[in-house]
Design brief:
The complex is a heterodimer of chains A (463) and B (392). Chain A is α/β, with parallel strands linked by helices and 463 residues long. Chain A is 30% helix and 22% strand. In chain A, the strands form five sheets. In chain A, strands 1, 2, 3, 10, 11, 12, 13, 20 and 21 form a nine-stranded mixed sheet that branches. In chain A, strands 14, 16, 17, 18 and 19 form a five-stranded antiparallel sheet that branches. The two termini of chain A are 28 Å apart. Chain B has 392 residues and is an alpha/beta fold. Chain B has three domains: 175 residues, FAD/NAD(P)-binding domain (3-Layer(bba) Sandwich); 126 residues, FAD/NAD(P)-binding domain, CATH 3.50.50; 88 residues, Immunoglobulin-like. The chains are: A alpha/beta (463), B alpha/beta (392).
């Protein structure tokens, strides 16, 4: 098992190097790890996996009901969602099949619902059903006044995006993939990657560089798409808000644009967002006073009581939008290169199918995958409130009292969980990585009580 | 399941004081739980000896103090589910006392936009980092707030070798002692920027600055690698809320009457969970005083029905915020505006119960104390009691 965070890179030539350890890159690495004869590396510019678009999304496992029918995205989301649901159950990734309601607040939205239902059917999703206002309020009693009806998509789920990415990466590393962190690609050519940590030689390059995917693509002589970062600001509300909402409340897209959604999270919070702002700056991951005010205005209409609850996090993610409506997955067989670009907000749902598709393209291009083995199943620590957390498990505490020793009180994170994360296959690079692995410091006090103690554990001094 | 006579949640000054008094008065088995590994509550961070002294006094009086035990929630009106390294346990009591204290609201709850860099603290986290662990903090800090605790943050930063660039408050003046404010500004040369709000945090990885918006609309940026959000205290009322106790919309803590009774028979609340925040000495006196009411309850005194006490702007909250007929208590309140020589009026159904001009100036984030001798003239069958204030 190899995870490097600094120092020189191996000299030997890899069979495949994947650039970008987001949810898509990690899924591809895991898929390649099924072939033990391949020598594979996953390189990431930042100090952890899933540090870009993958960490700051709406955490929904989509059915793909609203994709463009016949598109590659539609197919991969549909296939990927099924695969990920099964994988999540096997790996302990928290998923809650809460279902979604597309709530219509005006006549234009109401008239758009039948078209969306027809689109869902074209995408092979047949469970969409129209609900009248009475049934909408019966399902969501705390919804603001004025809902005219809704389309119910029972198959939409909520999921933990961090655990998903980490599960893929953990299985990949345990399966023999080298993960090189803090390794930014400066320049690329056929079979060679010049990085901040030295040069890597490889027979194949897979570009899963997300927001940087068009830049890498140009290095290799292609200009099929341009990434325009689309910023999505989101507000996370305290766990006391969880009882206010039962479904994912999706906006109805109309000519006037897409609204914001309100959704529970698997951690028991409620999420409000995202904004959609097209930017030039690929590092503009800050929220803005205007964005937060806009979200609060829209949220007040959807779920008025939500605004009375405390905000426990505000974040902004950049989606790798392009000028195209579909994913930009292209194989350049002569060059030993596959681009996996333009993977927007559906990347999490589609990740496993994208990975299978990309590995198929590599094989088509002549990569000898060799034998295929099963990977050792991975069991991830549970961050979901719908499943028993360690502090709730007498069996665990009896075996090891550290699981009864609460360090982060708001999120009820135990010393045992923090210790496990620090000793895991891919340990966190800092407090933020530890938070994504354990939820330590993610609650309403944001470290007022436990912040210093958690930092002390991370820095390895004393409990 | 185990039974005790009195179960106190929170081993801070208020919880330890009430537990000590009750145990000394022969109230039976009195047990105090605290989720932290050491007793003493918030003051112990800077003064561990004072925390040990208070816990020792409660134990000598006969109370049992158990640390590292978290009260997770309620499994009955007077039964709490707990967890600790020893496992799970449900504890029932004849009386439960919530003394869970208060905390500062962090940057997120204050909706400060921007990036999510390292170097963002509350005073609570800063104190623990510096006094508890001797952690490295940074080079240059901005302190948000200008109340008593903000000056404590400044002193702590200086102890840790951090230069303080400025203090920032959205109010027109500081809200601390005049001596301390003047000393910090003139002798330490730390500027106080008034009428200014921190709107955005800047920097990737590590904080690089904060953006301010001044009342006149100007925006400026202060370079710093550390920012401390101070004050803006709220009660740690999670357990009260989980138990479905009535909360006061002003204090956001459990609503209580003059005898510290909550909306549930047998459940009391004391200390800064009622009024964020008062000094350790003040909540110690409160805990000692509240013990008598718990004893009266254990002796069979009925749980009375109460009237609400409401405040109107510019007052923010009042505690206690319910009244029972036999209550004899003082009140503490907060204002959102600076009020020189405020004139306070207490009415019920349009009838004036009390009028009082307070000496000095009422300042936001600082306590205003009001006498309660007028409580005897409240009509127990009448409407809510209303408290208003205006400039004198």
């Amino acid at each position: 098992m190899t995870v490097t965070t600094g120092g020189p890179l191996p000299h030997a030539t890899y069979d495949v190097v994947i650039v970008g350890a987001g949810v898509v890159g990690c899924a591809i690495a895991r898929e390649l790890a099924l072939h033990p004869r391949l020598r594979v590396a996953l390189v990431e510019a930042q100090d952890d996996v899933g540090q870009g678009t993958s960490k700051a999304n709406t955490a929904i496992l989509h059915t793909g009901f609203d994709a463009v029918p016949g598109s590659l995205e539609a197919r991969l989301v549909r296939e990927g969602a099924h695969r990920l649901a099964a994988y999540a159950a096997e790996s302990g990734i928290p998923v809650e099949p809460v279902g979604a309601l597309l709530v219509a607040w005006d006549d234009e939205q109401l008239t758009a619902l039948p078209g969306l239902a027809a689109k869902a059917e074209k995408n092979g999703y047949e469970d969409a059903r129209f609900l009248g206002p009475e049934e909408v309020y019966a399902r969501e009693p705390r919804l603001g006044p004025g809902a005219l009806g809704a389309l119910h998509i029972p198959g939409e789920s909520i999921i933990c995006p961090w655990t998903t990415t980490l599960a893929y990466a953990t299985q990949a590393v345990r399966g023999g993939v080298d993960l090189h962190l803090n390794c930014r690609v400066r320049q690329a050519g056929t079979g060679v990657l010049h990085t901040t940590r030295g040069t890597l030689h490889t027979r194949r390059i897979v570009n899963a560089a997300g927001l940087g995917s068009d830049i890498l693509d140009r290095d290799l002589g292609h200009s099929d798409f341009t990434v325009t970062p689309r910023r999505g600001q989101l507000i996370v509300f305290d766990k006391f808000a969880r009882e206010l909402v039962r479904h994912i409340l999706l906006p109805v897209p109309t000519a006037l644009g897409k609204g914001v959604l309100v959704t529970p999270t698997v951690y028991g919070n409620v999420l409000l967002g995202p904004t959609a702002e097209d930017l030039d700056d690929r590092t503009a991951t800050g929220s803005t006073p205007e964005g937060l005010a806009l979200l609060r205005d829209k949220g007040r209409r959807i779920l008025p009581d939500l605004l009375d609850e405390e905000v426990t996090a505000v974040y902004a993610g950049l989606r790798a939008a392009t000028e195209h409506d579909d994913y930009q997955i292209h194989a350049r067989h002569g060059q030993g290169y596959v681009t996996v670009g333009g993977i927007r907000s559906t990347g999490l749902s589609a990740s496993m199918a994208i990975a299978a598709h990309v590995v198929g393209l590599l094989a088509e291009g002549g990569l000898d995958l060799g034998v295929r083995d099963e990977l050792e199943p991975v069991r991830m620590p549970n961050l979901g409130e719908a499943f028993p957390r360690p502090y709730q498990r007498p069996d665990l505490i009896a075996a090891d009292p550290a699981y009864g020793n609460l360090v982060c009180h708001c999120e009820r994170v135990t010393l045992g969980e923090i210790r496990d994360a620090l000793a895991s296959t891919i340990p966190p690079g800092g407090l933020e990585g530890l938070r994504r692995r354990t939820r330590a410091r993610a609650g309403r006090c944001q470290g007022f009580h436990c912040g210093a103690a958690v930092r002390e554990l991370l820095e390895g001094r004393r409990p | 399941m185990r039974s005790v006579d009195v179960l106190v949640v929170g081993a801070g000054p208020a919880g330890l004081a009430i537990a000590g008094r009750l145990a000394a008065a022969g109230a039976g088995r009195v047990e105090v739980l605290d989720r932290e590994t050491t007793a003493g509550g918030a003051p112990r961070i800077r003064r561990p000896r004072a925390g040990r002294r208070r816990a020792g006094a409660a134990e000598r009086a006969g109370a049992v103090v158990r640390t590292g035990v978290t009260a997770l929630g309620w499994s009955g009106p007077l039964a709490l589910d707990t967890v600790g390294a020893g496992g799970h346990e449900t504890i029932t009591a004849r009386a439960v006392v919530l003394a869970t204290g208060a905390r500062e609201r962090p940057r997120t709850a204050q909706l400060v936009a921007g990036t999510r860099p390292a170097g963002v603290y509350t005073t609570g986290e800063l104190l623990r980092a510096v006094h508890g662990y001797g952690q490295r903090i940074g080079e240059r800090a901005v302190v948000v707030g200008a109340e008593g605790v903000s000056y404590l943050a400044v002193a702590t930063l200086r102890t840790a070798g951090v230069a303080v660039t400025a203090m920032v408050t959205d109010l027109p003046r500081h809200q601390a002692s005049a001596v301390r404010a003047a000393e910090t500004r003139l002798r330490r040369m730390i500027p106080l920027l008034t009428d200014a709000t921190v709107t955005e945090l800047l920097g990737h990885g590590r904080l690089s600055g904060v953006r301010l918006r001044h009342r006149d609309g100007r925006t400026t940026t202060l370079a710093c690698d550390t920012v401390v959000f101070t004050g803006d205290f709220v009660p740690d009322q999670e357990l009260a809320r989980r138990g479905g106790l009535a909360l006061d919309p002003g204090t956001r803590g459990p609503a209580v009457d003059g005898a510290f009774r909550t909306s549930r028979e047998g459940v009391f609340a004391v200390g800064n969970v009622l009024h964020a925040v008062e000094s350790a000495d003040a909540v110690t006196r409160e805990g000692e005083h509240a013990a008598r009411h718990v004893r009266d309850h254990l002796a069979g005194e009925p749980w009375p029905s109460t009237l609400p006490v409401l405040v109107e702007p510019p007052l923010r909250w009042i505690a206690p915020n319910r009244l029972a007929p036999a209550d004899a208590c003082g009140f503490v309140l907060r204002t959102t505006e600076v009020l020189p020589r405020p004139l306070l009026t207490v009415t019920q159904d349009g009838r004036v119960l009390h009028r009082q001009e307070l000496p000095g100036t009422a300042v936001p984030n600082r306590p205003v104390y009001v006498v309660g001798h007028w409580v005897v003239s409240v009509d127990p069958l009448g409407g809510p009691v209303r408290v208003t204030a205006r400039r004198g």
